[in-house]
Specification:
The chain is an alpha+beta fold and 265 residues long. The chain is built from 9 helices and 16 strands. It has helices at 5-18, 21-27, 44-60, 94-99, 169-178, 187-195, 209-212, 216-221, 253-264, and strands at residues 33-35, 41-43, 65-68, 78-79, 84-92, 105-112, 115-123, 128-133, 137-140, 143-144, 157-160, 180-182, 201-207, 225-228, 238-239, 246-251.
Amino acid sequence: MPATEQTSRIAFAQQAVMAQTELMHRDFGRVQSQWKADGTRVTSSDLAISEAIAQGVAGRFSDDQFFSEELANAGAPMPVTSRFSWVLDPIDGTNNYAMGLPHCAISLALLENGRPFYGVIYDMARRTLIHGGPGFGVMDGDRRAHVLTEPACNQSIIGFHSPYARFHSEEAKRIIENYKIRGLGSSTLHLAYVAAGIINGVVDHNVKLWDIAAAVPLVEAAGGEVRYLKWDPFPMKIFDQKMERITYVAGCKAMCDHLCETLTG
């Protein structure tokens, strides 16, 4: 198949992510970390991966914009002005990574006119590349993946983070009472595992755009949906590291309906 503007970027994105996995594994659980002003952790591995992929994109696709959680010039919000842009979370699950817990991922999203059309995620725990997008399908390693479609029940496995604020405690109580919970410490992997058919759904209220940008097209391509409960971050018009948290549920349509019903009581 002849390369297009999308497919050339997709091929490069996969190569760029896989090129960083050796460093990721080498420094796992041994790298020093520090705390940023927003209370999140960052390691030298986050910074090295971000810089390497940024340089690669700039060298190959100089007209594209590149955004990362670990931007060196963090500050004012940056408007999206190019047709193609890239959004990177160099290590989603940095706390896990620094402490030697393997649920963490490199997460790279490709956007066209502000909307994610392809995601590339390296799942360190399973040493597997998950990638895909609408019109391309989803590959979980060498396996074509689809969301789970069985009816929601108390055996359904839901990715869910601990509430970051007290006003979410009632939501947490309802989720815990109605489903089996997995809190992996990686928002990227929660959502990617929905696309891969590993878990049934996700409820999250504590993510930023870079946490989910690569996994959203995976879920959509795998036959599921990401349903935003407060505001829809796409199309991305501004990249702002101080952006408002995103609240969403994800899964097949029936799972999303059931999750929404559960949250509202």
